[in-house]
Amino acid sequence: MNYDIIGDIHGHADELESLLQKLGYKKQGNTYSHYESRKVIFVGDFIDRGPKIRETLHLVKAMCDAGNAQAVMGNHEFNAICFHTPHVERGGFFRSPIF
What residues does each domain of the chain span? Predict the structure, then answer.
């Protein structure tokens, strides 16, 4: 099995789709697959900065659901989730070493 590793998309869904096409992935419904059974490993930072965060997340999730990709959370996703915890009323970044 061969893998393509993609990271730091930051909400740029159009550029992600262009990259997938250049790598030989074809759109099938709402997902992409490769004719040689290659798979993508997404290494985080799907959100922040770009204009199409929601579309990026939908595309990554669709590929994972179809078995064409695996995804791990990046620091931007980690901070977005933790921004509201443990103090929902204050929010804030969760970078202090508490582990």
Answer: 3-73
